[in-house]
Here is the input.
Amino acid sequence: MNRMTKQHDFSGEFFYSGDEACAAGAIAAGCRFFAGYPITPATEIAETMSERLPEVGGTYMQMEDEIASMAAVLGASWGGVKAMTATSGPGFSLMMENIGLGAMLETPCVVVNMQRAGPSTGLPTLTGQGDMMQAKWGSHGIYSIIALSPASPQELFDLTIQAFNLSEKYRVPVLVMSEEAIGHMYEKVIVPKESDIKLFPRRRPQVPPAEYLPYRPDGDLVPPMAVAGEGYRFHVTGLTHDERGYPVMTAEAQHKLARRLVDKIEQNQQDITLLEETDTENADVVVCSYGISARVASIAVTQAKAQGIKVGMLRLITVWPFPAEKIHRLAQSVRAFVVPEINQGQISLEVERAAGSKAKTILVPHMGGSVHNPAVILEAIKQAVK
Amino acid sequence: MSTMTVADLKHPLEEHLRVDRLPHIWCPGCGLGMILGALLRAVDKAGLDVDKTALVSGIGCTGRAAGYVKMDSFHVTHGRPLPFATGLKIARPEMKVIVFSGDGDLAAIGGNHLIHAARRNVDMTVVCVNNFIYGMTGGQLGPTTPTTAQTTTSRQGNTEHPFNLPYLAGACGAVYVARWTAAHVRQMERAFLEAIKKKGFSFVEIISPCPTYYGRMNEQATGLEQMRYYRYHSKVQHGADLADIDIKSDGQIIVGKFVDIEKPYLPMPPGADDGR
Here is the structure.
């Protein structure tokens, strides 16, 4: 079976919704298994995958719920096939259990969350950014995760590929934390030629089965991964385990394992982090935002500049691990950070923590259902430099 | 003259066991050792390529089986071995995927997955070890606890109705359904062999003693007493009407093979044209 590597050329210019672009990115990344459950506003990803996966020898499975979807994604990944699911808030909550298993078993996979306003059923068809902290802390216990935040359909395409690459490289579920506003936005999307898309292949064991230890890490703290059916006869468990993958019920084993699950992400942060920085040098105030809110904020930034305010912009493309050092450095020279987000303050807490007492952090909250009015963000920028 | 010592003896199933993980955690009198032994003998007899055989377990006493077998083995979240196994089987259609888990794992927290995996007729073998109780957590009421039975969360006797698991699996579309007890070692081995060879969703329920919790609280204080109960209260009735084989706390246990049919299954074999 060659489904892991078989690629197809789908290059061209398209008028895609964010959801369609995400599916196109997954196909281009070599994703050949999708398990999901219909949910607004992510359903179009499932529909597109159900149509396109059979064309490339992949499988779409509609599961009985999001718990099963996430479990099936992990099973497929252990079978050596790149796998993903896509959902929104209510489904994201159900996936948390097996996202934790994915982190514990160190299983590459991609989870897309097209955020809508919550809590609970909330506003299914309208946008929100209320799941950003859940992305980091949603499953119980100690682990680190990677979360990306695209700001356009094109970026949904690009970052879905990047999500697969990071998940393979660091053996961790990677979350694409988008929003309804981007998922349902139609824009031009350029799909590059197959040969121009860089894919990170799964790192396979370099030793014979008898010598293979499923959780003995390489230098970058990530262990090579055998897949099922190839004679390695490995055991993996959600219990705290040693390098053999065998359960060990001690504080020492827990320390060693949980420490590495965190360190393999945090210590490789430089390699993982993507940021877009505009005019932050000599800025008095920096607007720090992500996803659709960053797009809206850029209007306010342009207006503020026209009024003579020295304002820069830091767009978080990688939200987790949080680029605290970048914020900390900027805090030495700016007076304030303005953080618009469609929630009651989640990423702003991280900005505040990283900035410390060096610079003010001004949250511009929005409860969801629509995006910010740029005028509100502009007002916050003006307040910041008063 | 050479003398044979215990150290020289090789367990006939050693090749399939992670001997470095023994002794196992199961209590004296528990049926799990016998059941896992029968399953591994069936794996042998079926001539399965062990490199291409996977065992998936959930959480609980039975769930620990995945850690003792020397094959690709997955000890996953509580109730989720079936959807995990579904993803694995779709990704690796050439593999034989066996799910080995308990009644609480498969029928309570994982009940939704059980009915849907059976409905899809995913090609896998499911062994459901039913001891009528949650053993790992210390003896609580479960979805299969017989009415009136005592557990740590039903001290006055269970007031709920238990699942009739073969009826459930059959109604949902399983192509092979059987029930045996831990006292039927040869019969269960044969059932495992048939289930492994079956294409589609095969389901074997094994009634198994838990003297530590279920037995002790229900006047069958030892594994031996529970096994005796199975021996004298079991009745072989192949092809029995699934609706009539529910288990009562002091009643008969109907065992046998109840369903053995052919039906299109997932993943579809390459080039399959079965009119779906």
The interface with chain A takes residues 18, 20-21, 50-52, 54, 56, 59, 66-67, 70-77, 80, 82-92, 94-95, 112-113, 115-116, 267 of chain B (CB under 8 Å). Strands of chain B lie at 53-57, 72-75, 96-102, 124-130, 176-181, 201-207, 234-236, 253-260. Chain B is about 30% helix and 15% strand.
